[in-house]
Amino acid sequence: MDAIEATGLRKSFGGMLAVDRVDLVVGEGEIVALLGPNGAGKTTTLMMLLGITEPDGGSVRLLGHPLPRERQQALQRLGFTASYVEIPGDMKVWQFLDVFAGLYGTDRRRGEEALETLGLGTILSRTGNQLSSGQRTLVGVAKALMTSPRLLVMDEPTASLDPEVAARVREVLLEEQRREGFAVLITSHNMAEIERMCERVVFLAGGRVVADAPPSEIAARYGGEDLESAFITIAEGQR
Question: Were both Cys, which of 56, 149, 211, 235 would link to 37 (CB 3.0–4.6 Å)?
Answer without folding.
Answer: 235
